[in-house]
Amino acid sequence: MCGIFGRIAPPDSAEDPNAADAMRDSLRHRGPDAAGAVTSRGVTLGNVRLSIIDLTTASDQPFCDPDGALAVVQNGEIYNYLELREELRALGAQFRTTGDTEVILEAYRAWGPDFVTRLNGMFAIALHDRRTGETWLYRDRLGVKPLYIAEWGGAVFFASEIKALFAAGVPRRVDHSALAAFFALNYVPAPRTAFAGIRHLPPAHRLRLAPGRAPERTCYWDLGAIAPEPGLRGKAAEQAITALLDDATGIRLRADAAFGAFLSGGLDSSSVVGAMRDHIDGPIRTYSMGFADPRFDETAWAKAAAARFATTHTAAEAAPDIAALWPRFIWHTDQPHGDVSFMPTDRLSALAARDVKMVLTGDGGDELFAGYEKYRDVFPAGATEALTPGWAGRYARASGLLGEGAANQLLAGPLAEAWGDADPFLALTAAIEGADHQDPINRVLLADTTQLLPGNNLVKPDRMAMANSLEVRSPYLDYRMAELAFRIPGDEKLAAGETKAILKSAVLPRLGHDLTYRKKQMFTVPVGEWFKTALAGFCREMLLGPRFAARGLFAPEAVGTMIADHAAGRANHTRQIRALISLEIWFRLFIDQDPATLAAATA
Questions:
Q1: Domain co-membership, 359 together with 486
Q2: Quick one: 500 and 542 in the same domain?
């Protein structure tokens, strides 16, 4: 787990001699163990390293072959590196390290740019081939690891975080169309970012940068191409899930550093810890975060799961003062996000980082196997035959942040114009409609897996764990698990209105009835209640003050009414208020560069 950065430009182009150092320094939280950069003929590749596999300096990056023809940097882990190493050895490769980065270099040497299709991992990779002058950028299939790109000043810059691009001099300009999409979906969908001119390389894509040619982006894996198998039901599906969960967990336990797991007591994290127990005889460290409000607290369930699998469990409780971390969470995500569970994830990561350098998590299970209550709302009792034309667009709008009427009342100025210029729900709607070979349930799950998961839900563990120099790995995000999930018919996942029905049946023998069928609780902060009490003043200062009004993006009366109605209990505007505060903090950090807000974010 690391951070990568770089610049690709013509050999004779001028270069800021301090840019690489500035990019490196902005990413040091992602890799405190080592750092390096190499420059050749206008191309710079850099890395900051968090050492998990091969703790020696031999695997420090950039990793180059002996004659300097190839250089590679990566952020992430290649879980099947041992199998690839043996395959490459049979082809004549010789290895100088025991790490996974060298495997990437040798895989490229053996199989060319398509080597990426052989990788099972989470990664962002940059590889330069001095023989051809080409530089290749890759992002993993499901978008676990980030990779941002900007063309500026005659060069292409890339980095694991947007702030590293700013460190290189890339300008900060607001993209109002991206902000309109944020107020539609509660996150900015890739490839857009909140900054004009900066794009996120989509999951499962690679970018070829060659001298004298325009950048060429191609997709190397398409989850939407997976076809359902009508016969993959019942015991056959359960056995396939269990076998793959065990294998995906086993290869994610490959580490030379201490590791543990996040354990909420929910189905996904508990099943991962249960699979870990089958591979590990000794102690397993687990970590959870609770809340005083019982509606949000899962502490008892986490303790029950820890007892079942005999883990060494550590728990902490989040209080209302956790909201002081709001600038920190926006700083590390670089963009506005309306999901405030980033904050307890930050504290949970800090808790684990005291003892370990890597944790396993249950991320991905909800999107692949229909774990959210919203799916049952759309498909009551698992029924799909009653859907009417236009249902995909209605689903996108119903699950979004603002409906058309609310947007017309709330948005103003360039943000209102951007909302009206294009359908801000288009990314989600198109993802649903594009998978017409799948049943309706799987079409919705596919859209959330390809849009919501990389756009928001995977941003949270990556950024907040890396803010604490901690690596996270999730067996449910194994690409083979994603392919299996979309081979299983959707009505197996919402059978009789039971969320995650087939997954629950698969893990029941391991977890027992109570852990398997407990009521789902979302891992989030009870900030909606705090807006009425401990955070009422904070809410008013952020959204009713002159700085917010001066941006000219929202109707002041509509914002005031929203806050008053929420405080009085006449309506629940928690999601909308969270998004407004996140956007205001984002403006203060990245556009205003307000010293007080920056100090709070980086303390």
A1: yes
A2: no
